[in-house]
Amino acid sequence: MLQQPQRQKTGVAKLNALFSGLMAVVTIISMIIAIAIEPLWYKITYLVVMVPATILGGSIRSRRKQKSAKHKLTTVGAFS
Known about the structure:
The chain is mainly alpha-helical. The protein contains 2 helices and no strands.
């Protein structure tokens, strides 16, 4: 099998992973401390939907940013 080269994490991907982890930690702490203020289903849904959505959105943005940078390099080289 051919292995694809591993992509390095860009600053956007690292920041996105940090933000997603922070969202998860804050939501879990909120579930423990203020369990009676908001419904429990809301917090669980937030963890199950929003945290993965944030990770997915960040990875898509990171890929687009890498493709954009690669495209700029090839077009600049073509006109030199």
